[in-house]
């Protein structure tokens, strides 16, 4: 992600630890697909180097091409202090990787005729009426929420921090005792919009608002709606709004020198001139509200299955026409959502100008990540899907690691 972004979570009872790092355990790796030896060699080197340099604590990296596994490896620690090795079925706090799942749930409702992209948000949330600085109350549509052109903002963004702090708005990564989604949206509606809806891309709490819309349109709480519309049809057994098995949940770490620091119960971590507040224990809480922008947990295997379903056309959750729409450019590359050449679709960044981006990814690639330390991309033209999950914020999201993984994948897949 680039500096207009973030969203983000571990052993809540422990304070910040600066204990000396343990020696990384042996990694677990699936058998390599035929012809993938170059990918395996290059990715193993990238992962081993990141672990040796102590830039990440642990990771699970999965690569598919044309629907077949090319590479899959778990390496490092899920919990460094407990010396619990990372496993392929380790559960991660997905942070902003929640957004595509909730956005697909919304698009599934559109396919069913229960929701329209042009619906004003007030049709579903009559009391959600944020205003512009001049006092005008503009119309925000479902499409504005999906494209992050609603004028809403995030509190971790330095220019918006004071207003969000004053209103007591949660970004969906921290746990505020007693705070409900309805109350958080009421508070958010008191913060002035940053721009006229539809005018400018600004990464924001739009998907939290969208989650509330999905719940109303589906006639069920958001966790139930997402399960019915997305996770159950796809068989995503480990993807939900709460971790069911604490022993599989990875510990959360923040970038640090000489080694990443274990997050405490509540951890403020600097990011791009602002501060992200994490509450890792939120993933296990029965009281935390379901954040549509940051609240889910899941595994690498589940997320690959989700992305592969979309790459193949959307069945059984979306129509092919909806997949075409989500992968189209709705906000141009001037927004630089992932850097030069990147715009926005309906669930993620989309590579709108590959020539400007000057990389190996093809025009139309989808990409996003999560602040707990994740990155993913789907390159439909090349048939490539890559999911990189780590337990280290922010190296695994916006440090050197995800770019090195990407470059190793393309280098290894070249004829």
Name the descriptors:
2 domains, Beta-lactamase, 16% strand, single chain, three-stranded mixed β-sheet, nine-stranded antiparallel β-sheet, alpha+beta, 415 residues, globular, 13 helices, 16 strands
Shape: globular
Query: In CATH terms, what is the fold-level topology of the largest domain?
Result: Beta-lactamase
Roughly what fraction of the amino acids lie in strands? 15-25%
Terminal CA distance reads 29 Å
Tally of helical runs: 13
Structural class: alpha+beta
CATH architecture of the largest domain: 3-Layer(aba) Sandwich
Provide the low-confidence segments as ranges.
2-21, 30-35
Mean pLDDT value: 93
Task: Report the strand count.
Answer: 16
Q: Tell me about the biggest sheet?
A: 9 strands, antiparallel
CATH H-tier superfamily of the largest domain = DD-peptidase/beta-lactamase superfamily
Q: Provide the gyration radius in Å.
A: 20 Å
CATH class of the largest domain: Alpha Beta
H/E element order: EHEEEEHHHHHHHEEEEEHHEEHEEEEHH
Helical fraction equals 25-40%
Number of domains: 2
Protein name: CubicO group peptidase, beta-lactamase class C family
Signal peptide: 1-22
Pfam family, one: Beta-lactamase
Keywords: Signal
